[in-house]
Design goal:
Elements (H helix, E strand, L loop, with lengths): L20 H10 L3 E5 L6 H9 L7 E5 L9 E4 L5 H7 L8 H14 L6 E2 L8 E4 L20 E4 L3 E5 L6 E4 L2 E6 L2 E5 L5 H11 L4 E8 L2 H7 L9 H9 L4 E4 L6 E3 L4 E7 L4 E4 L14 E13 L4 E3 L14 H15 L5 E6 L8 E6 L6 H11 L1 H4 L4 E6 L7 H11 L6 E7 L16 E7 L18 H11 L7
Parallel strand pairs: 1-2, 3-17, 4-12, 19-20, 20-22
Antiparallel strand pairs: 2-3, 5-16, 6-9, 7-8, 7-11, 9-10, 10-16, 11-14, 12-13, 14-16, 15-16, 18-19, 21-22
Length: about 500
């Protein structure tokens, strides 16, 4: 990877507008990053259009309006973060920030641990419409069937699921999928070991219902934090405030007291009671399969439903990767694994890349400058098990520092020419995964196996290994200086 250069920022919206999804939509429109689509219905057409748009990284975000059966202005925004430009805009950076600089941005952000606590306000746009009791109907929102074989309608994809630890009062929010079933009934799916599942079990072990709030439309910066591996006990709202540079304004949920973003578009709150389960799924997930099938998941009994006038449903739809649910996490995960490798004492890490084709989880490439025999294997094993890299990983490939980990052709070349199958591969069994992994062990056992591949030059042969066929820096500088007008940029 290139030497880190601090990315240029852009002029930021006024305070509080940074928390508003509509400000972000206006920024996309001004940058030519938004496509308006009118008249698509929610059963097949909206999901089919989104599927086509997210097949190629860099396609525009899509804003649906005039959904048949719903008032004009009840909109859906999808394909939100399948673009380096849109990720940069979300972070307040120049839209032309290179991908590698986003990795370094996240490395700095995590090292600095920027934290700005939220502030509670009495009201906000999300309370323009507040419904309780028989007035609750989450199907007033045009929730699509995102994939044609989905078991229902998912209101929570680009969402925040908010919970409070009953022991410490710590607030956690995560991006868990939420299926809409009835006007006041939804389900939430949290993989075992995720923070939301841990908190829910704490309440249920006491025989108490678990308070929960779901936000289904908010500024994408808040959604990005929901999908990141923030350590247990650290308030995601603090992290989100550090990301946007100001406190997130929240209102207290009328029934649960949970903090809900005041500038959100759509939110509801309620309770998960012990042993209250409902059929959920199947759902097309980020691995590219309808993994997990039909199963029983916790029910949310909705007590309060609130939304802005002309609400916008935010969607981050999983599918065959790269997809909207996981692409944005690649730059973050790369930076997080890099930092955790260094924290574990692994020297001379030169780059990390979480490949989009693996849903930014299944494939990690680590580039190192070898310092000692066993260095490559050490780096690979730690990358496969550190917190940021362990969940649902399948491959970790370690390459020399002359290989750009973001260039999959060069990575495969290194695997083909520097990897010794006799000594260079470790198979790890019984590792942390998810039922969404189609190669997990099976029903009731979401563990998986993975491999670590040493695709570095053998340490003892570094000085005698065949010379790479590539023009030297001197020759390249010579021809670029003389023939720059006819040469490609890279």
């Amino acid at each position: 990877m290139d030497v880190p250069v601090k990315p240029r920022t852009i002029k930021q919206p006024a305070a509080k507008e940074r928390q508003d999804l509509r400000t972000w939509i206006a920024q996309l429109r001004a940058a030519g990053e938004l496509q308006d689509i009118a008249g698509a219905e929610r059963e097949k057409e909206i999901g089919g259009i989104v599927d086509i748009y997210q097949r190629k990284i860099g396609n525009k975000a899509v804003l649906f309006d005039d959904v048949p059966g719903y008032p004009r202005g009840h909109r859906i925004l999808a394909n939100i973060l399948t673009s380096v430009r849109r990720i940069a805009i979300t972070l307040g950076l120049d839209p032309d920030t290179p991908t590698v600089e986003l990795v370094h941005y996240w490395r700095r952000y995590m090292k600095e641990s920027r934290a700005i606590p939220p502030v509670t306000v009495n009201t906000g746009p999300v309370m323009e419409n507040v419904k309780t009791g028989g007035e609750i109907d989450i199907f007033k929102i045009p929730v699509p069937r995102w994939h044609e074989h989905d078991g229902g309608y998912y209101i929570g994809t680009g969402d925040m699921v908010i919970m409070r630890d009953p022991d410490t009062g710590w607030i956690n929010y995560g991006a868990y999928r939420v299926q809409a079933h009835e006007r006041n009934v939804a389900t939430v799916m949290c993989s075992k070991g995720k923070h939301g599942d841990i908190i829910k079990r704490k309440y249920h072990e006491r025989g108490e219902p678990c308070p929960i709030a779901v936000v289904a439309g908010m500024h994408p910066a808040l959604f990005m934090v929901a999908g990141l591996e923030i350590p247990y006990g650290r308030n995601e709202y603090d992290a989100a405030g550090g990301l946007i540079g100001e406190p997130v304004e929240v209102i207290a949920g009328p029934k649960t007291g949970l903090p809900i973003p005041a500038h959100a578009e759509i939110a509801f709150e309620g309770f998960i009671h012990p042993n209250d389960l409902h059929d959920e799924g199947p759902f097309g997930e980020w691995t590219g399969y309808y993994a997990g099938g039909l199963k029983q998941e916790p029910v949310i009994r909705i007590a309060t439903f609130m939304h802005r006038n002309d609400p916008v449903l935010l969607a981050a739809i999983p599918g065959i990767p790269p997809d909207d649910d996981s692409f944005y996490r690649g730059t973050y995960r790369s930076g997080a694994v890099w930092n955790q490798l260094e924290a574990a004492g692994v020297p001379e890490v030169k780059g990390v890349w979480a490949h989009a084709a693996g849903g930014s989880r299944l494939w990690l490439t680590v580039s190192i400058k070898q310092q000692y025999a066993g260095h490559a294997k050490q780096a690979g094993l730690i990358a496969s098990q550190c917190h940021a890299g362990a969940y649902a990983n399948r491959f970790v490939v370690v390459v020399d520092d002359d290989i750009d980990p973001t260039d999959i052709d060069r990575v495969v070349w290194a695997m083909c020419t520097r990897f010794d199958p006799r000594e260079g591969m470790e198979t790890l069994r019984g590792c942390w995964s998810t039922v969404l992994d189609p190669m997990a062990y099976g029903e009731g056992d979401p563990r998986n196996a993975r491999i670590v591949i040493d695709a570095c030059k053998p340490f003892t042969r570094r000085d005698t290994f065949p010379v790479v066929v590539r023009a030297s820096e001197e020759v390249e500088a010579l021809v670029r200086g003389k023939f720059s007008d006819v040469l490609p940029r890279s």
